[in-house]
Inverse folding.
């Protein structure tokens, strides 16, 4: 029901992001979604990868603070109003969204959006009741 | 001009005689009234009668900030609280502040000292004196206030902050003497420019600046920008507050008021006395204080002493402008800051082994302090908001403890250089 997201603390200085991608490429880890939340001082890099445990160990080894978070991988129709549908469902259920970003790959005419919400259980219930598909980690890996 | 010519210009011989009488009284006072001093003297087998000359002062043990902390809050007071009429406090090295107490006579003596300083700066009964030192637990504001009142001057107690209003009052009330920290004086100068006020529209003649170290270059800049004579004043709350020593119009060293204080310069490591002219740690014994006399107090300030006669006619010795410290204390906007205080705040915030670095700078003539904190696994959160909360929490805890605003910067682990033994905790970029 949830997908494991890796979050990494990055200072705002040249070369930090590429250091993380270098470590991941050395371990032959595939990144399927990526986003950065930035502030004036630091950023938080968030990723979905094919081998989360291995990725965490490698990033930690490289000296970055890293943590994992459960996020929702929500399938939406890749056309106008697709994302809106999912967001309306969450709004009706009174679930607030902390952040969201999209998947790099698509599944036919579907887009995949990663959601971090305040109340995940409630969100899952509402989305499933509305017939919206949520992906599991293994489904993501096989895309 | 002198405030108290008899005292300020007495012959060295008279001065020494006066000092010895006062020293004996002080030693009697602490021996009989303060357990800690009596205990330390007894440990060394010294009784007050053993002090037979000024030179014998050297056999007495030193007093340090640690002694004040060990006897927190009022254990070193030599007067009962019924005699104490005022408390001031400065930040201690960890957690608890250093508390000092004054009797009515102490307050009056302190005002006498500050009045002398104001007269050194050309102050008269009809001078307008603006006190822009902070009022409150800090000795700067109230210390100057009482001195200026004793002089009979017109006192404007603006305290720090609200600089535009300060400048307006300065202009409208024709302030002649400004008392504040040197960095605030520069900030006022900049505010003048911003407000489009020419310095000639003001009536400023003198600035009496202290509570933080400042260089000759800074003096030059202040003097040029404000068109005044800038004098350096020295003091510390453990001894009395501002007014321990002050520059006369000659600007060649700060006269230390020897009828109230006996200065010594020692090698901070061997603790041996150093001859005049040699740089070392300033040690002060108060000889006319009731509430909190201190015997051989280690100021941790580095200077040298000069007994040569001064062209101004005052006979009291002069100490060189103070620039360094023997410990890691920082003075930021007049506030004493020890790295250990920041460390205890970080530890209280849940960091068991905090890796931090303090970056001190002077931006737009105001001291700034940036605290770098390494983000540990424990501190790290996936949400920006939570990390911002961590930053704000640390900054507000530091504000609560030290009373200064800092910018907290979260950095990656191992950003801060590790070294063998003592970690480098401070980078001071201010040009001293």
């Amino acid at each position: 029901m949830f997908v494991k997201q890796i979050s990494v603390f990055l200072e705002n200085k040249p070369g930090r992001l590429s250091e993380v991608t270098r470590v991941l490429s050395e371990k032959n880890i595939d990144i399927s979604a990526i986003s950065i939340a930035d502030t004036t001082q630091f950023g938080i890099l968030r990723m979905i990868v094919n081998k989360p445990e291995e990725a965490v160990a490698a990033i930690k080894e490289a000296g970055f603070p890293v943590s994992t978070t459960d996020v929702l991988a929500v399938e939406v129709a890749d056309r106008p109003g697709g994302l809106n549908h999912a967001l309306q469902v969450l709004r009706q259920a009174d679930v607030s969204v902390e952040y969201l970003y999209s998947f790099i790959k698509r599944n036919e005419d579907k887009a995949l959006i990663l959601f971090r919400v305040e109340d995940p259980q409630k969100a899952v219930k509402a989305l499933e009741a509305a017939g919206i598909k949520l992906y599991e980690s293994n489904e993501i890996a096989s895309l | 001009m002198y405030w108290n010519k008899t005292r300020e210009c007495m012959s060295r011989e008279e001065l020494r005689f006066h000092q010895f009488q006062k020293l004996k009284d002080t030693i009697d006072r602490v021996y009989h009234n303060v357990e800690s001093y009596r205990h330390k003297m007894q440990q060394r087998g010294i009784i007050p009668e053993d002090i037979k000359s000024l030179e014998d002062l050297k056999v007495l043990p030193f007093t340090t900030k640690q002694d004040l902390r060990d006897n927190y809050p009022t254990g070193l007071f030599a007067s009962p609280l019924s005699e104490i009429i005022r408390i001031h406090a400065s930040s201690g090295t960890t957690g608890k502040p250093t508390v000092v107490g004054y009797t009515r006579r102490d307050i009056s003596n302190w005002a006498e000292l500050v009045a002398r300083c104001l007269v050194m700066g050309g102050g008269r009964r009809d001078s307008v004196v603006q006190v822009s030192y902070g009022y409150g637990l800090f000795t700067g504001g109230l210390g100057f206030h009482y001195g200026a009142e004793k002089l009979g001057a017109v006192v404007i107690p603006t305290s720090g902050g609200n600089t535009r209003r300060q400048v307006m009052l300065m202009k409208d009330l024709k302030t002649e003497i400004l008392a504040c920290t040197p960095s605030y004086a520069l900030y006022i100068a900049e505010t003048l420019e911003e407000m489009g006020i020419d310095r000639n529209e003001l009536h400023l003649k003198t600035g009496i600046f202290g509570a933080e170290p400042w260089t000759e270059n800074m003096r030059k800049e202040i003097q040029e920008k404000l068109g005044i004579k800038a004098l350096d004043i020295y003091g510390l709350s453990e001894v009395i507050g501002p007014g321990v020593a002050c520059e006369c119009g000659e600007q060649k060293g700060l006269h230390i008021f020897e009828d109230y204080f006996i200065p010594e310069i020692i090698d901070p490591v061997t603790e041996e006395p150093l001859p005049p002219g040699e740089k070392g740690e300033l040690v002060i014994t108060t000889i006319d204080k009731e509430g909190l006399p201190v015997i051989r107090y280690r100021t941790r300030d580095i200077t040298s002493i000069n007994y040569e006669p001064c062209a101004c006619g005052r006979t009291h010795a002069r100490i060189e402008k103070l620039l360094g410290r023997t410990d890691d204390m920082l003075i930021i906007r007049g506030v004493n800051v020890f790295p250990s205080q920041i460390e205890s705040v970080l530890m209280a915030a849940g960091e068991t082994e905090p890796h931090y670095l303090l970056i001190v700078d002077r931006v737009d003539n105001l001291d700034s302090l940036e605290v770098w904190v390494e983000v540990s696994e424990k501190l790290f959160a996936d949400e920006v908001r939570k990390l911002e909360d961590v930053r704000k929490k640390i900054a507000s805890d530091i504000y609560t403890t030290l009373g200064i605003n800092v910018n907290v910067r979260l950095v990656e682990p191992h950003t801060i250089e590790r070294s063998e033994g003592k970690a480098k905790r401070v980078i001071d970029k201010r040009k001293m």
User: Anything to note?
Assistant: The helical segments of chain A are 16-26, 52-61, 82-92, 120-129, 137-141. The longest strand of chain A covers residues 66-77. Chain A touches chain B at residues 5, 7, 9-11, 16, 37, 39, 41-42, 44, 46, 63-67, 69, 98-99, 116 (CB under 8 Å).
